[in-house]
Amino acid sequence: MRITERNPDIREETLRVFFAIWPGDVARVQLSGLAEQLRGKSFCSGRKTKTENIHLTLVFVGEVGASKLDALYRVADEIKDSGMSAFDFVVEKIRYWKRNRIVYATTGGIPPELTGLVSTLECALSTAGFVLEQRTYKPHITLMRDALCQTLPELAEPIAWQVREWMLVKSEQTSGGSVYTPIGRWPLGI
Ligand code: ATP
Ligand code: MG
């Protein structure tokens, strides 16, 4: 957390937060192994995402004052009460964004439940006064950063897990890299 100093009379702590999904333990280890293989087999050079940090962002909220957290929890509680369903996320592809040198894993077909959850969140957050970037949602799980790739292999087998909850996560930049801490969890109906 840090202190904003825009107005010296009102100093408020801020947090960098985003809504996300964390793959199940097995899938997260498989995805991490995949990133390791990309490096080991010289497909790509770059910084591998730590296993515990492997995630799928739903909505990036950004820097918010600590006093805004209650509003974020309220938005999420209301969405939870609207009865969103659990769904399978199936990773089938590895891709590379040259412009930001990111290697990521993604799915062949975006589950409608995921599209629904993201658009419901975006809409509810905007209504609650949060200003979001207007980028089209592209589900991606970052595997490597600062990457340079020769070529990318096809995935031998899909990596899948059942998404049963979504989270609000605090992101802190430390000398050891990004540290993500869940500060709220909401279940999806099974
Ligand atoms: P770093 O920025 O130091 O590389 P990071 O990207 O891991 O660290 P954050 O920048 O806090 O950490 O981002 C948290 C998550 O939100 C990541 O999945 C990131 O890709 C995503 N994200 C960050 N900024 C945006 C943005 N402007 N729009 C959409 N998603 C974003
Ligand atoms: Mg970032």
What key attributes describe this structure?
Cyclic Phosphodiesterase, Chain: A, 24% helix, binds adenosine-5'-triphosphate, alpha+beta, 190 residues, single chain, binds magnesium ion, 5-stranded antiparallel β-sheet
Structural commentary:
With 190 residues, this protein is an alpha+beta fold. It has a single domain (14-176), classed as Cyclic Phosphodiesterase, Chain: A. It has 3 helices and 10 strands. The protein has helices at 25-40, 69-81, 112-127; strands at 2-3, 13-21, 44-48, 56-65, 87-97, 102-107, 141-149, 159-163, 165-174, 177-187. The strands form 2 sheets. Strands 1, 2, 4, 9 and 10 form a 5-stranded antiparallel β-sheet that branches. Strands 3-7-6-5-8 form a 5-stranded antiparallel β-sheet, covered by helices on one side. A hairpin with a 4-residue loop joins strand 5 (87-97) and strand 6 (102-107). Helix 2 packs across helix 3 (112-127). The relative contact order is 0.25. The mean pLDDT is 94. Bound molecules: adenosine-5'-triphosphate (ATP) and magnesium ion.
Secondary structure elements and pairings:
Blueprint: E1 2-3, E2 13-21, H1 25-40, E3 44-48, E4 56-65, H2 69-81, E5 87-97, E6 102-107, H3 112-127, E7 141-149, E8 159-163, E9 165-174, E10 177-187
Helix pairs in contact: 2-3
The structure holds adenosine-5'-triphosphate (ATP) and magnesium ion.
Adenosine-5'-triphosphate is lined by residues 16, 18, 57, 60, 133, 171, 173, 178.
